[in-house]
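User: structure tokens for this one?
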Amino acid sequence: MVIAGLAFFSCQQKQAPPPPPVPVNLYTVSAQKVLYYDEYPATTVALSQVDIRPEVQGYITGIFFTEGTLIKKGQKLYEIDRRLYQASYDAAAANVKVAESNQKQAQQDADRYTYLSEHNAVAKQVLDHAVIALQTAKDQTAAAEQALKTAATNLSYSIIYAPFDGTIGFSQVKMGNMVTVGTTVLNTISTDDPMAVDFLINEAELMRFQQLEKNKHGTVDSLFTIVLPNHTIYPGTGKISVIDRAVDPETGAVRVRLVFPNPQHNLRAGMSCILRVHNIEGSPQLVIPGRAVVEQMGEYFVFIAKDTVMHSADSAAKKNNESTGDAPKLRAFQNKVQLGQTIGANVIIKSGIKEGDKIVVDGVQAIHEGSAINASSKPTAKNDSSANQKNNKQQ
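Assistant:
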């Protein structure tokens, strides 16, 4: 009897009412044209750069430039003590004159004995010796001339000239320093205009950049721009110069080189910058506020509001709710999405939602799969996308 009474009493208790709908803010997804940039860390690189090393040994006796300035091809940079090389050149020149004199004498003897031999006035052996002596004199002259060329080369190497136009750095040697052939670095010269910019792309993007390289004349003028270390945008625009021949098997990256004009020499080799690649996608994109996206275990979701009624287990409670008009019609359901480029406070959605869907942008932390929601009337961030597009265009 007691058990029956308890059962009867419990049946008389009212079932707990469902939780009230969570107030949220909704955003209607729409496709629109967007302007954004893909960004890559990059480094400026001189197209030509060379270390200046001496070809002869000696003491530095002259420095003829200002460090860190522009120099011209053929400009005199350094002088190495020329006295030994000048003396070697003078000695070689004198040896050439001696050899030429000996050759001249041997030529006269050979001509004389040839004439006498024609008249049978000299032995054949004497003529043969004269011819051999002449050939020896010619060889000695040739050797002396080669020694003179070597001495002249060494003498010319004692003065070092700029190999091309560019900027010269700090001198690594001072007046009176001893320099050694092939080991001592005197200075470094690099070209300035144009300047290269190197960056790495994933192998998945290789086809895209190859297409951009082929279609050089059909792309927009601002396709490639760079952001300098002081966060200003460099006024010049670049173009693809080289795509590396191979993909790095360890990282899956490919090096790409762009070339930028640098008439004011504002770009210096070795600078870190951000390369911006203009988006040339002409089709409209789905753009939503970034705060609508929820990350779970490395995956991304949004809550879509659907006009539906969840069936209650208690039909009486359902009828009661419907009679009072409290039954919620909107519920939130999770959809997995694939993210694209982030544009300010907004993000492009590649897949997972469609145009016209209503997604939750405020209150996502308070809801879960199937939560009853109530769309509030407070303003949404519907115009965030257009505002960010405007900002990007101004950049």
